[in-house]
Amino acid sequence: MRQLFASLLVLFALSAAQASEVSEALFAKHRTSVFQIRLIDSSANQKKSLGSGFKVGEAGLVATNYHVISDSVYEKDRYRIEAVDDKNVHHTMTLRAVDVVHDLALLAFDKPQPEVPSLAINVQDMLQGESVFSLGNPHDIGMMIVAGEYNGLVKDSRYKRMIFSGNINSGMSGGPAINQNGEVVGINVASRGNGIGYLVPARHLSQLLEEFPQQAEQKLSDVAGKQLLADQEKFYSAVTASSWEMQDFADLTLPRELHTSIKCWGDSDEVKKRRYDASSMQCSNNSDYLFILGGRYTGFIEYRYKWSKQLDLNRFQLYSLVQNNNTFESYAFDEYEESWNKDEVTPYSCKTSFIESGGGRWRTVYCVRAYKIFPGLFDVGLLMTSVDHNDRNLSIEMTVAGISETSASQLTEKFIRGVTWKK
Questions:
Q1: Domain coverage including residue 176
Q2: Which residue, of 31, 180, 261, 376, is most buried by count of CB atoms within 10 Å of its CB?
């Protein structure tokens, strides 16, 4: 047993030494192709955000994350972009192309670019457990390489990001994740913590490079808006065309998970001392938000069900309880709403109606606001409250961010029809 244990230690030491040698060789060979990307506030002449990037393609462009430089898309005169190379030389850059859906951007050098090689891209499928090496400048402390493994794609996600078993820290966003041959297989994009990071698959970067000539002739804020609109129309067309999973909930049958990217959780209160029964269910796609700019996100959908049934309450007391549930609580109508300004979105416009549906009568409130920076996109909210039972009530809230009017109408109409009383 001691001999076996000693042999395992030797093998582990050899494996660690070999991995270290690979990391050293890759870092030495490719570090000059990786840059720190800085978004500079022109008035303050100080950096507002930091990320990483790398030279790619025959045109010698620099790839990074969209979220690193997103503010410059909408306030071009306020910000400038710099790339700092391996020799600490600062290069001014121009934003040339974006993929807001997959969080990618392409930058071009304003002056003669540094004579460093572009990294090759590998879009082939990988096997789980393959070695991956992430490069970037975490926390502005210097360029680093982090060894890890590819561990498949994020399950049930719309955007299928790669799981990297290694630490991706702030400042590494937009840096390359390479294989043992030095080929880019992914782009650093986010950290889940505890040694788990997310990468954008390299195929999206390859596609953006193909689109670069067309985007170079367009206003990039318009390009981003068209990308968001096309993405949501594709998603919600599929959602409304599909057969939804239904679930019994209290005295009703209602929609559960409308898509594999949407997950539901439930809770109930069965304490006998209470004077009413209460149950709730909440569903959302909380891992598929899309970054727009300055802490603002879109692309999420959330819906909540709240059930109340009288035990020892009169109808007036139950009504008072229900009124407390008849307000928007989701992220879109709370912290998220306050993060926008009047130049970016319109105020919410709301309409109240009474409808007959699913064997019951409902009071509905439907609210809409438009994105000024993305024409054709809207945030919508729906409140539904049953009004024809004196001893029980179901309150529903649905909020959707970044959706077209047509898609919103089709989605909410089908959702309302899906809620039915069992008796």
A1: 1-216
A2: 261
